Amino acid sequence: MARRQLLVLVLALLVSLTASGCLGSSQSSPTSQVSSGNGSEQQLLNRIDALEQENAALRSQLDQLNLSVRSYEDQLAFYRAQFGDTVAVSPGADDPAFGGTASLDAPAVMQRQVTEQDGPFLRERVEQVGTLINVTVEIVPGRGRVLVNTTPLMGEVFQDAANTAAYVAQAKTGRNLSSSDVIVSIVAEDEVPAVDGGSAGALMTMLMISAIDGTDPRSDMTLTGTIDQDGRVGAIGGVIDKATAAKEKGKALFLLPRENSQLVRYTERSRDYYGYTVIQRVPERVDAKEYIESEIGIRVEYVDTIEDVLRLSR
Fold first, then answer.
1. CATH number, domain at 288?
2. How much is the pLDDT for 177?
3. What is the CB neighbour count within 10 angstroms for residue 241?
4. What is the pTM of this model?
5. Could you tell me which of 252, 259, 165, 301 has the C-alpha nearest to residue 311?
6. Which of 139, 141, 157, 167 could, after both became Cys, cross-link 97 (CB 3.0–4.6 A)?
């Protein structure tokens, strides 16, 4: 009997210990689970932060791309408007491709650095001189492109002027160049560090019209001037340098924008003040045509529009 009671007590003790162990295990498990849950939550928060940063960066890139797209859309609308005007004056949108070429020397002003000996020192200065560069326009079957090739490489200073020249040439001739490519080749004898490409716009327009019409411009003439979409010839710089270069290269006629009809010439005047001589440079306006013809010796004609250029160049 006593043995049976003892066995019951042992069993009861084992059950109690087992229950305590299970309770302890069940009590410690939530802590472990909470700790594990806190770690997973922190990883999730870190991932969310990283995704938000990536999203902000992508949003910034998207904004930049939208700006670029809007800019390209504006450019496309501009060129479509130009193309639409061109088609309106052309005999038909399905004009076949055709070819032609024309060439002429164009006056340009280049800037270069000159090194001079000044005693034991070397001194550098920027020198501006006139020169002639050869401009050739060739129209070939293509896709309506305006391509500019310069030798030596002069950057993209001529591209805008060439685009405007092609637009004006189509408007003035009534020909649609959408099935042709216009190739403008510009060749200089020496390396030209800096050239104002816009000042060749009127000349390029005249050459494109000559190539379309199959006519040759006078070889003893040259011209300078910008061109706008309405065919007006605008002012340029370096008039004296360009006229001098044209004369030195044997040209007999120099076409000049009327906006450059006035030159500013400086004359020196000296005065004595109490034993000192003061030399003053006084500006004086002179007529460009009269001055160039008398001092440089080349005939000058003023032009206002591309029609004036065409009339005097043939």
1. 3.30.230.10
2. 92
3. 17
4. 0.66
5. 301
6. 141
